[in-house]
Amino acid sequence: MLPSAYMANWEPGDDVTDIMAFDSVIVSEGEHKSFISANYLQRPVIGVPGVGNYRDVLPALKKWNCKKVIIAYDADAFLVKKQDGQKIRN
């Protein structure tokens, strides 16, 4: 997700690296939070649909020559669900 101001310059077929630098990227949980964060921080934020889906973004990060990834998952990413349904801190 790019900040809205940068998306105004994007056209289908354009590479996002022509619009904004991707030397550091934030990876967050959820598309909605990523949209808000990208606009607030004015930097690229990738939203994944859950902690286990980070592998899907690795090829894009390599393609964009990203040097630094900031992981900003929800607090429940550090919880482990036990068989009885309880969650404990990992």
Q: How would you describe what is shown here?
A:
With 90 residues, this protein is α/β, with parallel strands linked by helices. It has one domain. Helix content is 23%, strand content 23%. It contains three helices and five strands; from the N terminus they run αβαβαβββ. The chain has helices at residues 4-7, 31-41, 58-63; strands at 24-29, 45-48, 68-72, 79-81, 87-89. The strands form two sheets. It has a three-stranded parallel β-sheet. The chain has a two-stranded antiparallel sheet with strand order 4-5. The longest helix is centred in the middle third of the chain and has 11 residues, at 31-41. It is elongated and about 50 Å long. It starts with a helix and ends with a strand. The mean pLDDT is 84.
Mean pLDDT: 84
Can you list the strand order of the major beta sheet? Answer: 2-1-3
Structural class comes to alpha/beta
| Helix and strand element order | HEHEHEEE
Domain count = 1
State Rg. 15 Å
Shape descriptor: elongated
Helical content class: 10-25%
Strand content: 15-25%
Question: Which features would summarize this protein structure in a list?
Answer:
90 residues, elongated, TOPRIM_DnaG/twinkle, DUF3854 domain-containing protein
Layout of SSEs?
Elements: H1 4-7, E1 24-29, H2 31-41, E2 45-48, H3 58-63, E3 68-72, E4 79-81, E5 87-89
